[in-house]
Specification:
By secondary structure, this protein is an alpha/beta fold. The chain is built from eight helices and eleven strands. The strands form two sheets. The chain has a seven-stranded mixed beta sheet with strand order 3-2-1-4-5-11-10, with helices on both faces. The two termini are 35 Å apart. Bound molecules: S-adenosylmethionine. The site of S-adenosylmethionine has 20 residues, from helix 3 and strand 2.
Amino acid sequence: MGQDEHYVDADLYEHEYKRRREDVNYYVAMAAGELAPGAEILDLCCGSGRVTRALLRAGFHVQGLDTSEPMLERARQGVSRLPKRFRDNADLESGDMKDFDFERRFPLIVCAFNSFEHLYSRADIESALACIKRHLEPEGVFAFDVQMPDLAWLQKDPDKKWARTKFKHPVTKQRLAYSTNHVYDPVRQIAFIRLYYEPLEDGPLKETAVVNLSQRKFYPAELAALLHYNGFAVNRHRGDFGGDYLDEFAESQVLLCRHARDSD
Ligand SMILES: C[S@@+](CC[C@H](N)C(=O)[O-])C[C@H]1O[C@@H](n2cnc3c(N)ncnc32)[C@H](O)[C@@H]1O
């Protein structure tokens, strides 16, 4: 379905997103504001550990969960390079956000960087939300972000290649060109994205590699309704990590949810 190919080359993933710090800083600041020092956080879809490492460095314990073995391996490597007082506070496990059981609750559950967009059907979404709800302390916070659907982008010509950039692979050092296009299914609200990696010189990559990545798009009122009907109160629904309002210019949806009360 396109939820794993983009995560096979975890070194490349880390390289591509190494300058993406706003979300990491936001989740760390939020944890520091909401939690007691040293509290345990569930980092759902922890991936290569971008957010995990920062939460550990801030003194929290982190339980990570992800389906991708290469991403978990990269996350374990990164954690092993942290000072001992931090690295001993991490536990990274293989598992699916739609079906997990840690037999304990957490004061904060984070699902960062569009990972929620890997839930492709209503059944997927409801299974994940049920697991999250079962693992959230009574006063706990579920914090996540997804993209704001960009209607112009979704309708781009799927036969052209977009966003072409050249770069050096961080491990093989081979020069590659990156480009992308996608087909959008407006019924299932899924963008079937193809990432193209084209070799520009001799090296381990001999011909253009096509990596599939599928993202389920969430419209704001629909997302709020899904959360509401699955027992969550949405306390904040903003347009970026700096707290800007969700409006027609927003690129992200940044949400902070708690258990719904009778009054919600
Ligand atoms: C865009 S990455 C985000 C990773 C990390 N949270 C970050 O901020 O860099 C999405 C992650 O979700 C993971 N993933 C996709 N579907 C999943 C599922 N059903 N359960 C758990 N992890 C999943 C992928 O393996 C990948 O590591």
